[in-house]
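S1.2 Input.
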Amino acid sequence: MVMHDDQLFLDDETACRLIVQQFPNWRHKQIRRIRTDGTVNAIYRIGTDLTARFPLRSTRPAAMRAELAREASAMRGLTACCPFPTPVRVAEGAPGHGYPLPWSVQTWLPGRVATPGGLANSSAFAHDLADLVHALRTADSEGRHFAGTGRGGNLRDSDDWMDTCFRESGGLLPVDRLRAIWAEFRILPPAGADVMTHGDLIPGNLLVDGERLVGVLDGGGFAPADPSLDLVAGWHLLDAECRVWFRRELACSDLEWRRGAAWAFQQAMGLVWYYQRSNPGMSTLGKCTLTRILDDRELSESLPAASGAFPHRSDA
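S1.3 Output.
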């Protein structure tokens, strides 16, 4: 099912032709599409050690070429400081055969994609997440600051988007209570100077083996942002006891922790309704994260609107 109004169509035959014709040295490798909950790229595995990533949303080729260059630079920066393996960009492909955009090839990492609940009670995994966030936070920002809008900057910049999410979530979520929570989240003051962040530490961007973190994907968003932004990992992936471990190892202040919950809330609100039919895995992630926020005892005390259990009925 189509996820976006501007989504591009790419079939397997076209993807294979683009890969083989532009990189004939890979013509003997098996090429197959990888089904994921990802929303930005169609991903094809090339043999055992490479993946091709074809952008799914329409834009100007020149703009995508610039975006791929920016992503490649960000990926190199992440690789330089990340304590876990990250993919490396190895090539860029050109449009062709009706597919209109440039695309990229990067290395494949072994591991199992994390899930919202799979390691939610693992202290070892919580420790690895804390090591990851600490390493990124302490990387050199080279004097740069957050350069965008929305997630990672000023919470209030998300007001219009949140109004859309509340409007579209009627019948899916307890909208009145969630509006009240956002009214308290949005006025939280800054928690400190910008630091380097991954920017999207959701389960789908983390690889695990057993209870350990073994890979970090989607490094194209590595950039300076709110120091609370990567704390979303705790809300997307950990239950209450392990969030305590995660928070303690990062020595988060109360303000940082609440802002991290705010960014997780902002992201989760967009996932539930937008992907309800087209990408149920992402929609489920949003519901899981909101449940953790609503059920958290400390947040309930600091944000009275958060008190009360999350209703599971579709008409809540």
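S1.4 Remarks. Residues 61-81 form the longest helix (21 residues).
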